[in-house]
Design brief:
Layout lengths: L5 H14 L10 H4 L20 E9 L5 E10 L2 E9 L3 E11 L4 E12 L2 E7 L10 H14 L6 E6 L5 E16 L2 E12 L2 E10 L7 E8 L2 E12 L1
């Protein structure tokens, strides 16, 4: 499960490592964890928050890495929605997007694409609807988890199941923790917050705060390893 969005940025760096194996790029579990949430057709409450289009920027700081800005958008395209993320450094860039439908209380993944480049070398990945029948891609799962965080009080640990960029099964556990008061566009909001853990790695976890009315929008994310915060992500710009 530790291979998700600020998996996104870390997936970019992981592919840099795969492209240039002689370089000592170390893989960070934040890369696997944030795009990895939830079930593709997992029912949510009848009052599931309605999806709303947004366009946002995040600033990501990671110990031992250069800081990065990440662009994240959610928009409607006909009868489905598209969630996209992209980021770039001086010599590397990456992007990924997914399409999913929403019938009011369920999301269903329809397709996923990603590409990562380092010095013009890199890899492309895609997943079609049949590959996402039982589990969502990580972009769809991110939106679903944010709705669950808004409406469910899972304190004892709820399972998360998704597929990574190659279609491989990933599993984790999330639980609701205390809401965090945050400022968004000059307004104070109580941000639904969850802790997300890898079942196989007890020494690390992510604490993620979502917007209370905009599914999929991250307000802050902190990644902890061996008790220390080693990465953090913050919302820096929001357009609706």
């Amino acid at each position: 499960m530790t291979d998700m969005f600020p998996t996104f940025f870390f997936r970019l760096m992981s592919n840099v490592r795969a492209t240039c194996p002689g370089r000592l790029f170390r893989r960070t579990s934040l890369a696997t964890a944030l795009l990895a949430f939830s079930l593709v057709a997992l029912p949510v409450l009848a009052q599931a928050s309605a999806l709303r289009a947004f366009d946002a920027n995040y600033h990501l700081s990671v110990d031992g890495w250069p800081d990065a800005n990440i662009h994240h958008s959610l928009k409607r395209e006909g009868d489905h929605w598209r969630s996209s993320m992209e980021s770039s450094l001086a010599i590397a860039k990456g992007r990924e997007s997914s399409q999913f439908s929403d019938n009011g209380d369920q999301l269903r993944a329809l397709g996923y694409r990603s590409d990562y480049r380092f010095l013009r070398m890199g890899k492309d990945y895609s997943l079609n609807r049949s590959q996402l029948t039982n589990r969502p891609d990580r972009q769809t799962a991110l939106v679903e988890l944010s709705r669950l965080a808004q409406e469910q009080d899972c304190q004892d640990g709820c399972e998360l199941n998704y597929v990574d960029h190659k279609g491989r099964n990933e599993d984790g556990v999330w639980r609701r923790v205390a809401d965090i008061p945050l400022q968004v566009d000059g307004k104070r909001v109580q941000a639904p917050t969850v802790e997300l853990r890898d079942k196989d790695k007890d020494d690390r976890y992510m604490r993620i705060s979502f917007h209370p009315q905009i599914p999929g929008l991250l307000l802050r994310l902190d990644f902890f390893k061996d008790g220390d915060r080693v990465s953090r992500l913050r919302l820096t710009r929001l357009n609706q």
